[in-house]
Amino acid sequence: MSTIKLTYFDMDGGRAETTRIALSIAGIEFEDHRITFEEFGGLKSTFPLSSVPIIEIDGHTYTQSNAMSRYFGKKAGLYPEDAWQGFLCDEAMYIIDDVSNALGKTMGLTGDELKTAREKFVSGILTTALKLLSNRLKAAGGEYFAANQLTIADLVISGFLKVIGRGMFDHVHTDIVEKSAPLLVKHMERVSKDPRVASYYQKRSQ
Amino acid sequence: MSTIKLTYFDMDGGRAETTRIALSIAGIEFEDHRITFEEFGGLKSTFPLSSVPIIEIDGHTYTQSNAMSRYFGKKAGLYPEDAWQGFLCDEAMYIIDDVSNALGKTMGLTGDELKTAREKFVSGILTTALKLLSNRLKAAGGEYFAANQLTIADLVISGFLKVIGRGMFDHVHTDIVEKSAPLLVKHMERVSKDPRVASYYQKRSQ
């Protein structure tokens, strides 16, 4: 048995969430090390790429949330065995990376500059990606993004859109997903009702 | 047999290169559609995310270069079967994404602003990533990034560093890889001497 410690911010969402859920569904014990933004400032320079999440496995530190998600997703039965279904899963995950990177570029801006950048983000890549993902979902059968089953793509996408819908990003209206891609709202509900996902959050709340 | 058309810029490098090589090694026929930057301007709005590469498979258009690389990499025997080796392959690829995104943020800047941003890029994420990748290569046995064999991680990394070394990015000195991570220069040579890779470029030059 490996000793596993996952370090990320203290939020139910963001880049470590899929890995946490996958670890939990795989039944793999791990330390869910949650740090504050203040603690992150002090620890940043000790992380390999000055960023989180990081995962320590038997004392070795690794980076890259989606590599972690894919690895533990395989352990949890949340990654397609079939190569083409794997492609559909991967493509959907990378589309979220594109959106997330574009959102990242607006961080740190203020005032009118922030407003302009965020409005461009919403009307541009966010809306485009929501519509593309909605079409991908439809083409894959309407319920899941790949292999007609819950995969890490579903967790990554619903997790990201849940955060978008929380209203924590100025000028990104909370109803953007409902307006541009109502199928993805239904998808979010489907994912959160999955017994394995629901059980993870139930344990979290205890 | 599927009809496959890969659209990207007319350069031997960049985000489509690993997919091109993987397709070639897998022996899969495809149309290597290369466009100029001018043509891209006119076509941009017709691409799903206004970006390239895109791949059309039997008339359906897909995005995300690394999803393509992983899919055709599997077909070509360039992706590890083992989940942990797959993690090492994925982590290395995502590290390059981080670097590439950071470089992307400096595009469009000019003058002193460009100089400052590029110097920060070089002394920051680029140097850090080169050293991390160098350590990963050592830990994996020194020759390849995963599974002791050529994988798409090797192609992605050597391809990216080859472009970095071409001197096409102002303020990014061509000797940065040699200075920060000489092992990665040796790795680049190893990859380019791989008979399958060499054969791809030999066919290209005919």
Explain the overall architecture:
2 copies of one chain form a homodimer. Chain A has 206 residues and is α+β, with helices and mostly antiparallel strands. Chain A folds into 2 domains: 4-77, 3-Layer(aba) Sandwich (Glutaredoxin), CATH 3.40.30.10; 83-194, Glutathione S-transferase Yfyf (Class Pi), Chain A, domain 2 (Up-down Bundle), CATH 1.20.1050. Helix content of chain A is 59%, strand content 9%. Chain A contains 9 helices and 4 strands; from the N terminus they run βαβαββααααααα. Chain A has a 4-stranded mixed beta sheet with strand order 2-1-3-4. In chain A, β3 and β4 form a beta hairpin. Chain A is globular, with a radius of gyration of 17 Å. Chain A starts with a strand and ends with a helix. In chain A, 37% of the residues are buried. The model of chain A has no long low-confidence stretch (mean pLDDT 97). The A-B interface holds A 48-50, 62-64, 66-68, 70-71, 74-75, 83-84, 86-87, 90-91, 93-95, 97-98, 101, 105, 125, 128-129, 132 and B 48-50, 62-64, 66-68, 70-71, 74-75, 83-84, 86-87, 90-91, 93-95, 97-98, 101, 105, 125, 128-129, 132.
Largest inter-chain contact set? A-B, 30 and 30 residues
Assembly classification: homodimer
Strand runs of chain A, count? 4
Give the overall pLDDT of chain A as a whole number: 97
What is the CATH C-level name of the largest domain in chain A? Mainly Alpha
Distance between termini of chain A? 26 Å
- Shape field of chain A: globular
Name of the CATH architecture of the largest domain in chain A: Up-down Bundle
The helix-and-strand class of chain A reads alpha+beta
Main sheet overview of chain A: 4 strands, mixed
Strand order, largest beta sheet of chain A: 2-1-3-4
CATH fold annotation of the largest domain in chain A: Glutathione S-transferase Yfyf (Class Pi), Chain A, domain 2
> How do the helices and strands follow one another from N- to C-terminus of chain A?
EHEHEEHHHHHHH
- The amount of beta strand of chain A, in percent, is 5-15%
User: Uncertain segments of chain A of ≥5 residues (pLDDT<50)?
Assistant: none
Number of helices of chain A: 9
The total number of structural domains of chain A is 2
The percent range for helix content of chain A is 55-70%
